[in-house]
User: Which sequence fits this backbone?
């Protein structure tokens, strides 16, 4: 049994839901992200937020998987601050939806001034509404600098408790910075550009199993929606206790996400497709 | 601020078990590195761009005998600056820091 706390199912097939369910996935959380192209209007985000809060939970439920989501405009579309603020203005109405856990995945991409301005606007929204926050850290050569800028930015919002903020996509050079400041951290299991399952287990062996989880971040790119059970297998291969495997792939995400008051990993009987839609 | 507990750097496997479990996989990956460099040689004349300069520096780091190679290699490949850039002109990343900024 496991939770995948970061996966972009709008980009995945129903076959992926089948494989995830068979591998033991009982609950997922889906942050709002970049579609692979810039949307042409805030209305495009309105429709995307409806997909995340209405249609995707129904699709997941057909496979017995509980679906939750996070809302934002991704940093890759934050270079136009006027546009980004129009999208952010749409979010408060969607916060009433029962599967919305908080704001995410916000953060930085290329570490620009405009991205920082929009990151701070999201942090203000989270602070005002006392919401959980899921943070994307930049890719590859931009990750270390971006992570440090993000940690400093969050510190400027004293109402945001680090215990309610998860910094995602950590690797060996950023995990300790995140944990030392009291935040939670997520390791993304990617074939090439983030952590492999092996390296994620190395990080757990190096920095411990507190305030840490693993996710697939499966999306429209080169990614693996059943990466988390592969990491479970890697832990077992090395002789880690089953209690530790369960902690980092179920107990930890359940603990963090339950702070929202809306998260559930209770067994869900697969539902029939709604043929009226 | 909470500190990461010390003395966590531990594997449940013995040194021999790690080698038994992973040698063949990493022998293959090492050969992939060698084959990649040979492929570049076969591709004809030219000079390394910033990515390959960083790549060769990362290979040298592997042989320096110091611990925490993964963390140090990632730091070597990272942008060392500390302030936001004026504007993002691209969305992607190249995998290595470009010291003269052409990739950004």
Assistant:
């Amino acid at each position: 049994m496991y939770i995948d706390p970061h996966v972009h199912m709008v980009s995945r097939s129903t076959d992926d839901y089948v494989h995830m369910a068979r591998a033991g996935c009982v609950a997922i959380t889906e942050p709002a992200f970049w579609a692979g192209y810039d949307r042409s209007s805030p209305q495009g985000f309105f429709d995307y937020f409806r997909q995340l809060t209405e249609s995707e939970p129904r699709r997941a439920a057909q496979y017995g998987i509980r679906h939750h989501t996070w809302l934002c405009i991704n940093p890759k579309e934050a270079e136009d601050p006027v546009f980004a603020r129009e999208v952010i203005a749409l979010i408060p109405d969607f916060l009433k939806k029962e599967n919305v856990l908080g704001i995410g995945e916000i953060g930085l991409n290329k570490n620009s001034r405009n991205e920082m301005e929009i990151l701070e606007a999201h942090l203000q929204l989270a602070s005002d509404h006392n919401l959980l926050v899921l943070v994307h850290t930049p890719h590859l050569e931009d990750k270390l600098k971006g992570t440090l800028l993000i940690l400093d930015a969050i510190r400027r919002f004293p109402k945001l408790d680090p215990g309610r903020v998860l910094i995602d996509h950590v690797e060996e050079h950023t995990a300790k910075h995140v944990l030392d400041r009291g935040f939670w951290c997520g390791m993304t299991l990617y074939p090439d550009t983030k952590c492999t399952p092996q390296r994620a287990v190395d990080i757990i062996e190096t920095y411990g199993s507190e305030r840490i989880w693993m996710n697939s971040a499966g999306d429209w790119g080169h990614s693996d929606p059943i990466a988390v059970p592969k990491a479970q297998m890697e832990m077992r291969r090395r002789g880690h206790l089953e209690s530790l495997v369960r902690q980092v792939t179920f107990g930890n995400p359940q603990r963090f996400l339950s702070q929202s008051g809306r998260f559930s990993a209770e067994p869900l009987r697969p539902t029939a497709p709604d043929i009226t839609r | 601020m909470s500190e990461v507990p010390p003395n966590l750097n531990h594997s449940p496997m013995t040194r021999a078990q790690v080698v038994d479990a992973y040698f063949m996989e990493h022998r293959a990956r090492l050969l992939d590195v060698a084959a990649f460099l040979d492929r570049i040689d076969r591709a004809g004349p030219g000079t390394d761009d910033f990515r390959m300069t960083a790549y060769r520096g990362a290979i040298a780091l592997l042989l320096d005998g110091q611990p925490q190679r993964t963390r140090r290699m990632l730091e070597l490949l990272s942008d060392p600056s500390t302030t936001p850039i004026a504007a993002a002109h691209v969305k992607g990343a190249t995998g290595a820091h470009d010291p003269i900024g052409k990739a950004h």
